[in-house]
Amino acid sequence: MDILLIAGLWLDGSAWDDVVPRLTELGHRPVPLTLPGQGDGAASATLDDQVAAVVAAVDAAPGKPLVVGHSAAVSLAWAAADARPEKVAGVAMIGGFPAGDGRAYADFLPVHEGWMPFPGWEPFEGPDAADLDDDARKRFAAAALPVPEAVVKGVVRLTDERRFEVPVTLVCPEFTPAQAREWIAAGDSPELARVTRLDCVDIDSGHWPMLTSPFPLALLLAGVADLHADT
Protein backbone atom coordinates (compact mmCIF):
# COMPACT_ATOMS: atom_id res chain seq x y z
CA MET A 1 0.00 0.00 0.00
CA ASP A 2 1.12 3.55 -0.64
CA ILE A 3 1.67 5.41 2.63
CA LEU A 4 1.66 9.17 2.22
CA LEU A 5 3.75 10.83 4.94
CA ILE A 6 3.13 14.47 5.91
CA ALA A 7 5.32 15.98 8.60
CA GLY A 8 4.24 18.81 10.89
CA LEU A 9 5.36 22.41 11.16
CA TRP A 10 8.97 23.31 10.29
CA LEU A 11 9.59 19.92 8.65
CA ASP A 12 9.52 18.58 5.10
CA GLY A 13 9.62 15.13 3.57
CA SER A 14 13.15 14.49 4.85
CA ALA A 15 11.75 14.15 8.37
CA TRP A 16 10.78 10.59 7.41
CA ASP A 17 14.23 9.50 6.19
CA ASP A 18 14.64 6.90 8.93
CA VAL A 19 11.06 5.63 8.60
CA VAL A 20 10.97 5.15 4.83
CA PRO A 21 13.50 2.26 4.54
CA ARG A 22 11.75 0.25 7.23
CA LEU A 23 8.32 0.73 5.64
CA THR A 24 9.80 -0.41 2.33
CA GLU A 25 11.26 -3.50 3.99
CA LEU A 26 7.81 -4.24 5.40
CA GLY A 27 6.34 -4.32 1.91
CA HIS A 28 4.80 -0.87 1.60
CA ARG A 29 5.45 2.12 -0.66
CA PRO A 30 6.20 5.14 1.53
CA VAL A 31 5.77 8.53 -0.14
CA PRO A 32 7.18 11.36 1.99
CA LEU A 33 5.68 14.67 0.87
CA THR A 34 7.41 18.03 0.67
CA LEU A 35 4.68 20.62 0.20
CA PRO A 36 4.58 24.13 -1.28
CA GLY A 37 6.25 26.57 1.07
CA GLN A 38 8.47 23.93 2.68
CA GLY A 39 12.01 25.04 1.97
CA ASP A 40 11.33 26.42 -1.50
CA GLY A 41 11.26 30.05 -0.38
CA ALA A 42 7.64 30.42 -1.51
CA ALA A 43 6.30 32.81 1.10
CA SER A 44 3.14 33.08 -1.00
CA ALA A 45 2.28 29.40 -0.48
CA THR A 46 -1.14 28.97 1.12
CA LEU A 47 -2.91 26.30 3.10
CA ASP A 48 -5.02 25.57 0.03
CA ASP A 49 -1.81 24.97 -1.94
CA GLN A 50 -0.67 22.40 0.61
CA VAL A 51 -4.05 20.67 0.73
CA ALA A 52 -4.08 20.51 -3.07
CA ALA A 53 -0.63 18.90 -3.06
CA VAL A 54 -1.76 16.20 -0.64
CA VAL A 55 -4.93 15.54 -2.64
CA ALA A 56 -2.83 15.29 -5.80
CA ALA A 57 -0.68 12.64 -4.09
CA VAL A 58 -3.84 10.71 -3.17
CA ASP A 59 -4.99 10.90 -6.79
CA ALA A 60 -1.58 9.72 -8.01
CA ALA A 61 -1.58 6.60 -5.82
CA PRO A 62 -2.32 3.40 -7.75
CA GLY A 63 -4.76 2.25 -5.07
CA LYS A 64 -6.22 3.63 -1.89
CA PRO A 65 -3.37 5.03 0.22
CA LEU A 66 -2.97 5.40 3.94
CA VAL A 67 -2.54 9.12 4.61
CA VAL A 68 -0.34 9.92 7.60
CA GLY A 69 -0.27 13.37 9.18
CA HIS A 70 1.95 14.47 12.04
CA SER A 71 1.14 17.22 14.55
CA ALA A 72 -0.54 20.18 12.82
CA ALA A 73 -0.41 18.27 9.53
CA VAL A 74 -3.09 15.88 10.77
CA SER A 75 -5.41 18.60 9.47
CA LEU A 76 -3.87 18.22 6.01
CA ALA A 77 -4.39 14.47 6.11
CA TRP A 78 -7.97 14.96 7.26
CA ALA A 79 -8.62 17.53 4.53
CA ALA A 80 -7.49 14.93 1.99
CA ALA A 81 -9.94 12.43 3.47
CA ASP A 82 -12.64 15.08 3.15
CA ALA A 83 -11.73 15.79 -0.47
CA ARG A 84 -11.37 12.13 -1.47
CA PRO A 85 -13.27 9.97 1.08
CA GLU A 86 -13.75 7.22 -1.48
CA LYS A 87 -10.03 7.07 -2.34
CA VAL A 88 -8.41 7.10 1.13
CA ALA A 89 -8.04 3.73 2.85
CA GLY A 90 -7.40 5.30 6.24
CA VAL A 91 -5.83 8.24 8.04
CA ALA A 92 -3.16 7.96 10.72
CA MET A 93 -2.79 11.02 12.93
CA ILE A 94 0.43 11.27 14.93
CA GLY A 95 0.37 13.52 17.99
CA GLY A 96 -2.37 15.86 16.82
CA PHE A 97 -6.08 16.46 16.44
CA PRO A 98 -7.62 17.81 13.22
CA ALA A 99 -8.99 21.33 13.04
CA GLY A 100 -12.65 21.61 12.20
CA ASP A 101 -14.24 23.48 9.32
CA GLY A 102 -13.72 27.22 9.63
CA ARG A 103 -10.83 26.96 12.07
CA ALA A 104 -7.35 28.34 11.48
CA TYR A 105 -4.76 25.72 10.58
CA ALA A 106 -1.97 26.57 13.04
CA ASP A 107 -2.22 30.20 14.11
CA PHE A 108 -0.77 29.83 17.60
CA LEU A 109 2.81 31.15 17.46
CA PRO A 110 4.32 34.48 16.39
CA VAL A 111 4.71 35.31 12.69
CA HIS A 112 7.54 37.56 11.46
CA GLU A 113 7.68 39.14 8.00
CA GLY A 114 5.39 36.58 6.43
CA TRP A 115 6.80 33.49 8.11
CA MET A 116 6.33 31.50 11.31
CA PRO A 117 9.89 30.53 12.38
CA PHE A 118 10.71 27.70 14.73
CA PRO A 119 10.23 29.31 18.19
CA GLY A 120 12.92 27.39 20.05
CA TRP A 121 12.35 24.69 22.60
CA GLU A 122 10.65 26.60 25.41
CA PRO A 123 7.07 25.91 24.14
CA PHE A 124 7.87 22.19 23.94
CA GLU A 125 9.58 21.54 27.26
CA GLY A 126 8.20 18.48 29.02
CA PRO A 127 6.87 15.30 27.41
CA ASP A 128 6.98 16.74 23.86
CA ALA A 129 10.77 16.98 23.73
CA ALA A 130 11.88 14.80 26.64
CA ASP A 131 13.41 12.18 24.31
CA LEU A 132 15.44 14.69 22.31
CA ASP A 133 18.96 15.21 23.65
CA ASP A 134 20.91 18.45 23.22
CA ASP A 135 22.50 17.37 19.94
CA ALA A 136 19.16 16.30 18.47
CA ARG A 137 17.60 19.61 19.50
CA LYS A 138 20.39 21.55 17.84
CA ARG A 139 20.05 19.54 14.63
CA PHE A 140 16.29 20.02 14.59
CA ALA A 141 16.54 23.78 15.18
CA ALA A 142 19.25 24.20 12.53
CA ALA A 143 17.19 22.38 9.91
CA ALA A 144 13.79 23.83 10.86
CA LEU A 145 11.97 25.50 7.96
CA PRO A 146 9.90 28.63 8.55
CA VAL A 147 6.23 28.20 7.63
CA PRO A 148 4.48 30.71 5.36
CA GLU A 149 1.99 32.96 7.12
CA ALA A 150 -0.73 32.09 4.60
CA VAL A 151 -0.36 28.44 5.60
CA VAL A 152 -0.55 28.81 9.37
CA LYS A 153 -3.34 31.40 9.18
CA GLY A 154 -5.21 29.58 6.45
CA VAL A 155 -8.76 28.47 7.20
CA VAL A 156 -9.57 24.76 7.11
CA ARG A 157 -12.49 23.89 4.85
CA LEU A 158 -14.31 20.57 5.22
CA THR A 159 -17.43 19.85 3.19
CA ASP A 160 -18.03 16.11 2.83
CA GLU A 161 -19.42 14.25 5.83
CA ARG A 162 -18.30 10.98 4.28
CA ARG A 163 -14.92 11.79 5.84
CA PHE A 164 -16.29 10.44 9.13
CA GLU A 165 -16.55 6.99 7.51
CA VAL A 166 -12.81 6.93 6.76
CA PRO A 167 -11.01 4.83 9.43
CA VAL A 168 -8.74 6.89 11.68
CA THR A 169 -5.84 5.71 13.83
CA LEU A 170 -4.70 8.25 16.41
CA VAL A 171 -1.07 7.57 17.32
CA CYS A 172 -0.43 8.84 20.84
CA PRO A 173 3.21 9.82 21.52
CA GLU A 174 3.48 12.34 24.39
CA PHE A 175 -0.03 11.51 25.64
CA THR A 176 -1.78 8.20 26.23
CA PRO A 177 -4.72 6.64 24.37
CA ALA A 178 -6.76 6.97 27.56
CA GLN A 179 -6.04 10.69 27.70
CA ALA A 180 -6.92 11.08 24.03
CA ARG A 181 -10.27 9.38 24.51
CA GLU A 182 -10.99 11.54 27.56
CA TRP A 183 -10.26 14.71 25.58
CA ILE A 184 -12.44 13.57 22.69
CA ALA A 185 -15.30 12.64 25.04
CA ALA A 186 -14.98 16.08 26.68
CA GLY A 187 -15.55 17.77 23.33
CA ASP A 188 -11.98 18.82 22.62
CA SER A 189 -12.01 17.22 19.14
CA PRO A 190 -15.45 17.43 17.52
CA GLU A 191 -14.08 15.94 14.30
CA LEU A 192 -12.73 12.77 15.90
CA ALA A 193 -15.84 12.45 18.06
CA ARG A 194 -17.83 11.78 14.88
CA VAL A 195 -15.47 9.26 13.28
CA THR A 196 -17.19 5.91 12.80
CA ARG A 197 -14.02 3.86 13.33
CA LEU A 198 -11.39 5.40 15.60
CA ASP A 199 -8.45 3.48 17.07
CA CYS A 200 -6.08 5.06 19.59
CA VAL A 201 -2.66 3.43 19.82
CA ASP A 202 0.34 4.22 22.00
CA ILE A 203 3.95 4.79 21.02
CA ASP A 204 6.67 5.39 23.57
CA SER A 205 8.15 8.66 22.35
CA GLY A 206 7.90 12.41 22.49
CA HIS A 207 6.17 14.55 19.89
CA TRP A 208 8.52 13.63 17.01
CA PRO A 209 8.60 9.79 16.86
CA MET A 210 9.79 9.81 13.24
CA LEU A 211 13.05 11.26 14.60
CA THR A 212 13.39 9.49 17.94
CA SER A 213 11.54 6.17 17.40
CA PRO A 214 11.54 5.62 13.62
CA PHE A 215 11.55 1.80 13.70
CA PRO A 216 8.65 1.44 16.17
CA LEU A 217 6.73 4.08 14.24
CA ALA A 218 7.33 2.28 10.94
CA LEU A 219 6.12 -1.00 12.44
CA LEU A 220 3.02 0.71 13.79
CA LEU A 221 2.21 2.41 10.47
CA ALA A 222 2.82 -0.79 8.54
CA GLY A 223 0.36 -2.54 10.83
CA VAL A 224 -2.25 0.14 10.20
CA ALA A 225 -1.68 -0.12 6.44
CA ASP A 226 -1.99 -3.91 6.58
CA LEU A 227 -5.27 -3.54 8.47
CA HIS A 228 -6.73 -1.38 5.71
CA ALA A 229 -5.11 -3.09 2.75
CA ASP A 230 -8.37 -4.59 1.49
CA THR A 231 -10.62 -1.59 2.05
TrEMBL record:
Task: Note the superkingdom of the native organism.
Answer: Bacteria
Supply one GO molecular-function term: hydrolase activity
Protein's organism: Streptomyces roseicoloratus
User: Can you name this protein?
Assistant: Alpha/beta fold hydrolase
InterPro entries assigned: AB_hydrolase_1 (IPR000073), AB_hydrolase_fold (IPR029058)
Q: Which residues form the AB hydrolase-1 domain?
A: 3-214
UniProt keywords (A-Z) are:
Hydrolase
